[in-house]
Amino acid sequence: MSLDSITLTAIRKELINMFKDAKIVNIFQVKKYKIIFEIKPVRALPSYSTDKITKSKKLFHIHISTDPSKMEIYFSEAENIKETTNSPFLALLQSQFIGGKILDIKHLDFDRILHFIIQPYLKFGKTKNITLVVEFMGKHSNMILLNENNIIEGSIKSITSKINRYREVIPGKLYTPPPSQNKLNPLEISKENFFNIFYSCSDKELSLGHLLKNKLKGISPQSAKEIIFQANLLPDKKILEVSSRELEFLWSSLNRIIENIKHQHFNPTIFLDPQSRKIKTYSLIESRKSPRCNKLSFNDTNSCLKYFFTEEEKEREIISLKNKLKRIINKNMAKLNEKINIYQNKILEVKNCDRYKLMGELIKSNLGNIKRGEAKITTINYYSPQQEVITIPLNKSLTPLQNAQSYFKKYRKTKDSLKIISEQLNSNQKKLSQLKDLQKLYKQNSNSLSNLQEIYNKLVKLGLAKKVIAPVKKQKKERNKLKPTKYVSKDGWEIYVGKNNQQNDFLTLKLASGNDIWLHTQTIHGSHVIIKNKGSDQTPPLSTLLEA
């Protein structure tokens, strides 16, 4: 299910109700295209889980992903984030947004785009608002930061003229929205316009589902199907097959849904496969989908989206882990079978080591008959009841006695290796047996994430998989990174200097107090400098100001 403008209309309203004027405490990046904003509400808010008005002291996370394969937007109570990453875009957002507040969230012209209007932290004087544009456009999805003049300051994905000559998304360029593709805003469409879309379509073989998706802005294939279902029609019905009466039904269905969108009347529902109970899709409009699907209903859009996206992520984790386990198990089973075959052949070879001892004894018994430099000796096997003739290869560079000693040495060495080879064979056979057991478990529990993780941990214990260890955060080093450099002027005044964005933010937002003096170069990037005030009635001398 791709995010469409019906979803964005619904979630925007709930985001504004929850987070208008809320403070941005922190920002994280998860994977390549997902940003999480940590938010602290600063006023009495309607709880998203109840109808009561509460003064919330909790932190919340707003999850936004523009990954084409998993576009997301929802909010949740703040929780620990296991794996984060860094990027220049994240650093830009952190420098601009942390300490600021969300003034508004706009959804313009029913397109798949949200505009987050942010007021940066007011350091000194009046600060102009900045905008984060989030475009949910499939493979063209993006997050773009704009200044007060709509100039691009950065984006999660840069688009140069080599990629798209019609619309560049790079710093310094004026922001232009994606092309409208000549689609109509369904919130503003009239009956006459709708009928005109239908009758003016040149491709009469086009299905109703494709017609609505191609001609109406912000409508996903899933929503287009639902509009058609509610008209008691089928999405694959061709335009040429639609009667005037059926077209009236289709307009009534679309108009009814549009009115519900305008009045924020949504019916958040998730559809589950009746056998596997896996999520299939979700809908925010009254649905008439196949009765074979099980349904989960929700009181609000965010709860529906949160459940859908988190369950979808679990399903992706399950598929990824299943593939990983299958790869590890099959690869190691093949390796173990190969090793076992080698060890079994070696054991057969070692079990014939008594033949080396026999050759040594026969050479020793024929020392008088062997001349140095001979390549072989043919003699009777005195140790055999059959007394058969046996030919023994000789090393021409060795004396007859040395040849006998060589065979005795080979006998001892081969016999000693039998114990080691047997141990290795038993060890590998045991591992193979354990792997076969894990393979059975894997097949029986292939839809349980916790069981799959347990199987993976057992593979780690067997030494067949690498243990994934989350990087340990070195808190002391992190604190030192945030600690600005301290100086003391000749007059005894403390001066603190920030040498990077993190130190500047820590200096200005946390260390400085109201009576301190703040210094910074005008209109260019540079260090923030704070002169700590000794007392409310004291002013630092000119020499201290010059030193700072």
Protein described:
The protein has 548 residues and is an alpha+beta fold. The protein folds into four domains: 5-155, ibrinogen binding protein from staphylococcus aureus domain (ibrinogen binding protein from staphylococcus aureus fold, Roll), CATH 2.30.310.10; 191-302, Helicase, Ruva Protein, domain 3, CATH 1.10.8; 325-461; 475-547, no CATH class. Helix content is 40%, strand content 18%. It is built from 13 helices and 20 strands. It has helices at 5-19, 88-97, 191-200, 208-215, 221-229, 244-262, 301-351, 354-365, 400-444, 449-461, 475-482, 501-511, 542-547, and strands spanning 23-30, 34-40, 44-46, 53-55, 60-65, 72-77, 101-106, 113-119, 130-135, 142-146, 152-155, 269-272, 279-283, 294-297, 376-380, 389-393, 485-488, 494-497, 517-519, 529-531. The strands form six sheets. It has a five-stranded antiparallel β-sheet with strand order 7-8-9-10-11, with helices on one face. Strands 1-2-5-6 form a four-stranded antiparallel β-sheet. It has a four-stranded antiparallel β-sheet with strand order 17-18-20-19, with helices on one face. Helix 4 (208-215) crosses helix 5 (221-229), helix 7 (301-351) packs antiparallel against helix 9 (400-444) and helix 8 (354-365) packs antiparallel against helix 9. The longest helix is centred in the middle third of the chain and has 51 residues, at 301-351. Mean pLDDT is 86; it is low at 48-55 and 469-479.
